[in-house]
Design brief:
Shape: elongated
Distance between the termini: 22 Å
Strand content: 15-25%
Radius of gyration: 20 Å
Helix content: 40-55%
Strand order of the largest sheet: 2-3-1-4
Structural class: alpha+beta
Order of helices and strands: HHHHEHEEHE
Number of strands: 4
Number of helices: 6
Largest sheet: 4 strands, antiparallel
Length: about 140
Amino acid sequence: MISEQDEKLLSILRTNARTSVSDLARALSLSRSTVQNRIAKLESSGVIKGYVVQYGSEFSQDLVSAHVSIKVKQKLTTKTNLELKQVSQISELYATSGEHDLIAIVQAQSLAQLSRILDDIGNLDGVERTNSSVLLETKFKR
């Protein structure tokens, strides 16, 4: 379990992971060393796994994104997951219940590139079939 102060710290970092320790300390009414120690503790305990790059709105608004539902041959699940991990345009991969086994979030710079990526995914050894939905608009994201 993490403390209420840690939850507030994580909330600020989720909004902007580059917030300075000084700004974090002011926002939390804590000393800089306390904030640094809390961050180190959250990192060492695995609560904070790492920091990622988020695309700016100018770049991301031009990306074409799709949810790709993937049905996998059961005996090739591990191999297929490893091959999907190598596709750099797949930003997330989820195991699901139901008709499809996986959902991949694909981001491409054009519809033509998305089409090629979808063909590549469909041609992977363990993939039985795919079903894609292009995302038209993001209503909100947390």
